[in-house]
Each structure stands twice: as C-alpha cells, then as structure tokens.
Structure to design on (95 residues):
C-alpha cells in the first residue's frame, strides 16, 4: 500500500507540472492577443515553434547520448551525424 501512495503522489506532481502550464497558456491567450500587436505576438508564436522542435530533440535524449559517446568513438562526426539525422527524421515525421 505504501508503494501505491508514493506512486499516486509522484503521478500528481508530474501530472500537475504538465497540466498547469497548458492551462495557464490557455487562459493567457486572450490577454496576449489584446495587449500585443500582431507583429509582437508573432514573435511569441515563433518561440513556441522553436520550443516544439527543441522538445522533440530533448525528449529523444540524443543530447545525453551524444555526450556519452562523443569522446569514446574514434570519429566524433559519426556520432554527431547519426544523432542529428535521427532527430531530423523525427522532426520531419512529426510535421
């Protein structure tokens, strides 16, 4: 029973950290569109696009894999190009 309480507590913490920012963004969009000019709000939209691409890369964990294998391989460019191609294919697939 102790494990279930611990699991429920961790699930609530991680779940809230995912849900709260999305709700906050949802409620702030009317304020943003009223306060910002369309040109200024375009910058915010562009940042969200960059964040989407970065999240694909970070979720994949390739930055950790690159740093783990970069010094151990004979050719570091092979490690970098492999990680880059896999992330690029993932981004293109998500479009």
């Amino acid at each position: 029973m102790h494990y279930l309480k611990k699991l429920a507590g961790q699930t609530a913490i991680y779940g809230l950290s995912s849900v709260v920012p999305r709700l906050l963004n949802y409620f702030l969009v009317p304020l943003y569109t009223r306060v910002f000019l369309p040109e200024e709000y375009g910058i915010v939209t562009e940042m969200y696009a960059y964040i989407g691409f970065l999240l694909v890369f970070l979720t994949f964990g390739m930055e950790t894999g690159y740093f783990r294998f970069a010094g151990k391989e004979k050719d570091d460019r092979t490690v970098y190009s492999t990680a880059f191609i896999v992330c690029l294919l993932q981004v293109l697939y998500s479009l």
